Amino acid sequence: MSAPQGGTAAGRRPRRLRTLTVLASCLVLLAAAVVFAVRALGQEPTVTLLANWTGTDERNFRQAVIAPFQRKYHIHVDYQGSSAESQVLGADVEAGTPPDVVVLTGPGELADYAGQGQLKPLDGLVPAAGFGASWSTPLNGHVYWFPLKADLKSIVWYPAGTGERQRTEAAHRPGQWCVGMGSGATSGWPGTDWIEDILLQKYGPAVYQRWARGELSWRSRQVRSAWTTWGRLVAGAGGNSGLVRRALKTPYQDAAKPVTAQPRGCTLEHQASFIRSQESAWQRVDGRYEHSARLIPGATATGAWEVSGDLVALLHDTPHAKTLIRYLASAGAQRAWNAKESGFSVDPQAQPAPADAGPAWHRSLARTLLDERAVHCFDASDAMPPSVRDAFAEATIEYLAGPRRLDALLASLDTLSHAPDLTWLPSVCDHVP
Fold it and tell me: Where are the beta strands (DSSP E) in 167-287?
C-alpha cells in the first residue's frame, strides 16, 4: 500500500525515515567496502594457523597466547582447531592452500613435509639454546620445528589415597586398568603409547631409539615382548573378551570414568600428563601419578621418560608469519601457555614464577621434563613416517581383538617400514646412556 501524496507534517515523516534508512544502509555498505579494501591492501595482516586444540585447550591458547600477540603486533591470527588436523593439512597441501603456520604432534609427519619442500627453515627465528635436540631434531642442517607444548607419557595415574601396595596389586589385575582406544580418525594411539613405553622401560633408550629410527625389526624379541606384555596387562593371558570390548568401544577421554564409580570400575590409567588438566575423572578423584616403570613387569630402565609435544612449523615465510613464529618461540609466550596448565614448556627460561607454578602435580611434571639427568625420548610412533605410524595404531586395535594375529601384524609392519622413500628421524632421545 502506497503512502498518500502531500498531507500533514505527520504524513511526511515516513519519507524522512526512508531517507535516513537509505543513508544508513549506504554507510554500512561503505564501511564494509573500506574494511575489504584495507584487508586487500594488506593494512590488516592475517596469519593462518592450524592446530589440534579444541575446547578448553583452544580457549586457553586464544586467551593466554594469541590475544596478547594480536594486541602487541596488530596481526590477526585466523585460528582453525581440528582433532583431524593431519587430514585437514593433507587436504590443504594437496589443494595448494596450506596454512601459514601449523602445529602438529608428529615430527615424523613434519619431516615428511620438509622432504617435500613444504616447510621453511626456522634458522634465526628460534633461540638456538631454547630447546633440546629431541624436541627440534635438525634435518639436513636446518631446524624445521620447535615445541610450544610438551607432555610426559611414562605415567600411570591413580586416585589420591591409593597406597603403593594397592597400586601394585591393581597393576596385576587386567580389569583394574582404565583403557580406551577410541579417538576418531586416530583411534589406536593409546595402544601405541603403551607398547612404546613398555619397550623403553624394559629395554632402555638405546633399543628404543634403534626401533624408532627404523633400525630394529618389529619381529625382534624386544618389540614382540612389548606387545605381549601390554596384552597381558590390559586383557589377561587369555585375552578377556569383556575387557577387550570395553577398551575398543571406549573413547580415550572416557577411559577413566569408572574410577569415580562405587565400587571403582578401574584404578590405574597409563596416559599422558595432559589428561590431568582436562575435564576428566582424574580431576574429580584428585589424580596422582607415578613413573610407569614401577608398575611395568620386567622394567629395568632408570630415569627414562617417553615424551610428546605439539610442534610448530612454518609453511609460508611471510614477514607476519615469521613474527608469529618468533613470538611462539619466545619465553613469554611459552610461559603464558605453561601457566594455563594445558601443557608444559621445555624452555628453561620460560618457567613460571613459583607463586604462579600451579598445583604440586603440575610443578613435579614440569621439573621432570627439564631434568638434565633424565633421558627424554620422543613418542616413537609420532616420530615414525606417517604411513608406519598409522599402520601401528591400527595394528594395536587388531591385536587386542585377535592376539593370535600378532606375528602377521608385526610382519606387515616390518614390510611397510622398509618401503622406499620413507624419512626416519636421526634421533628421538636427548641422550642415550
Answer: 269-270
- Report d(CA 400, CA 240) in Å as an integer: 10
pTM: 0.87
For the segment 109-124, the average pLDDT, to the nearest whole number, is 95
Cα–Cα nearest to 291, from 278, 306, 281: 306
Rounded CA-CA distance 209/213 in Å is 6
Query: Homologous superfamily of 46-151+308-369 in CATH?
Result: Periplasmic binding protein-like II (3.40.190.10)
Res. 5: pLDDT tops 60: no
183: nearest Cα among 252, 234, 127:
252
Task: Please give the average per-residue pLDDT across 320-326, as a whole number.
Answer: 97
Domain parsing of the chain, residue ranges? 46-151+308-369, 153-306+379-417
Q: What is the pLDDT of residues 222-242, one digit of tens each?
A: 999 999 999 999 999 888 899
Which pLDDT score is estimated for 360? 83
- The residues, any chain, with a CB within 8 Å of residue 112's CB and separated by 6 or more, are 385, 386, 423
Strand order in the sheet with 155-158: 269-270, 155-158, 288-291
pLDDT tens digit sequence for 143-187: 999 999 899 999 999 999 999 999 999 999 999 999 999 998 889
Domain 153-306+379-417 has CATH 3.40.190.10: yes
What gap in Å lies between CA 256 and CA 280, rounded to an integer?
A: 7
Residue 369 contacts by C-beta under 8 Å, 6 or more apart in sequence?
A: 150, 152, 305, 307, 344, 346, 376
Same fold across 46-151+308-369 and 153-306+379-417: yes
How much is the pLDDT for 352? 61
